[in-house]
Recover the amino acids of this structure.
């Protein structure tokens, strides 16, 4: 699908963010945030609309706070990168919401008398889960070398395309099949290391 925005316009916003322009994030949000929400909402069931908007805003704000995570020369458009990051953020939020609902259902089955009083408990459970996930991420990042940490951050930010990781590893000059193989080897090595450390299942 063709980009809806002029790539040069979005890259100018990116340049301003990199330069530390304090007005850039607000201007960028006014230009593209509604579009990101609308496009991402189309990919999820209507019942998730409130969750979608919140997650897309979170993903956008994260990007604005870490604009150096996007490489203009990686071959992926900034619009595509933002849409992918937004989708990943919403997908993770939907998964968390489903887990919470399933947990709530199990608690209700065990404790049928819980009604209105259950809601604060559910919120507390979710807060504990969020804190635990954040602590897990911090522990993972602390265990990795500098290069592997930045590689893993790209993955956390929603990057999936081989060319993004190939550019990061400075192997973009290799044939595509070799890029794909080396990127996979790098991912597998990091995953194996984290599993051996007990940081991944």
């Amino acid at each position: 699908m063709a980009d809806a925005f002029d790539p040069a316009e979005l890259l100018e916003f990116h340049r301003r963010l990199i330069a530390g322009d304090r007005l850039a994030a607000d201007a960028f949000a006014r230009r593209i945030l509604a579009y990101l929400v609308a496009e991402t909402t189309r990919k999820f069931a209507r019942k998730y609309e409130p969750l979608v908007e919140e997650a897309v805003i979170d993903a956008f704000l994260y990007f604005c706070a870490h604009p150096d995570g996007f490489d203009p020369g990686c071959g992926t458009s900034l619009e595509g990168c933002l849409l992918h990051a937004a989708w990943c953020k919403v997908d993770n939020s939907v998964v968390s919401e489903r887990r919470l609902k399933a947990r709530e259902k199990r608690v209700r089955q065990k404790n049928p008398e819980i009604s209105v009083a259950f809601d604060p408990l559910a919120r507390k459970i979710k807060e504990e889960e969020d804190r635990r996930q954040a602590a897990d991420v911090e522990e993972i990042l602390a265990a990795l070398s500098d290069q592997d940490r930045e590689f893993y951050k790209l993955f956390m930010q929603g990057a999936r395309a081989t060319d993004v990781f190939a550019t990061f590893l400075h192997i973009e000059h290799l044939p595509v099949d070799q890029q794909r193989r080396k990127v996979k080897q790098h991912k597998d090595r990091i995953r194996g290391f984290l599993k051996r450390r007990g940081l991944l299942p």
Summary: The two ends are 36 Å apart (CA to CA). DSSP finds eight helices and no strands in the chain. Helices lie at 7-18, 24-41, 49-65, 78-110, 118-143, 146-156, 162-168, 176-196. The mean pLDDT is 83.
